[in-house]
Amino acid sequence: QVQLVESGGGLVQAGDSRGLSCAASGRTFGSYTMGWFRQAPGKEREFVAAISWSGGITAYADGVKGRFSISRDNAKNTVYLQMNSLKPDDTAIYYCAVKLLTSYRTPKSDREYDYWGQGTQVTVSS
Known about the structure:
Elements: E1 3-7, E2 10-13, E3 18-25, E4 33-39, E5 46-51, E6 58-60, E7 68-73, E8 78-83, E9 92-99, E10 115-116, E11 120-125
Parallel strand pairs: 2-11
Antiparallel strand pairs: 1-3, 3-8, 4-5, 4-9, 5-6, 7-8, 9-10, 9-11
């Protein structure tokens, strides 16, 4: 049974940094692309970042480039999202997801991902 569990969310102030983690279990995830998405109240879920199985290829949404960084530790089956210079517009539930296909691709469509975590809330106050 594939399970993804996000952690690290909370209430922060604008300009602060926050790190999210996503622990995966049920498989060895070192062969798969992992992604982070977010959903703000009243909005559709949107792509944030993705990382290839090796960690050598990453992709970011335009709105987070230069502020967010995705990484992974395959030995720990964990993917991370470091968020710097947070803005109120970053307020959302953050989800991690896995694409169960060994690939160098880092898709931005949520339809390409197979399993999802339950999400962790990040609230950025102004």
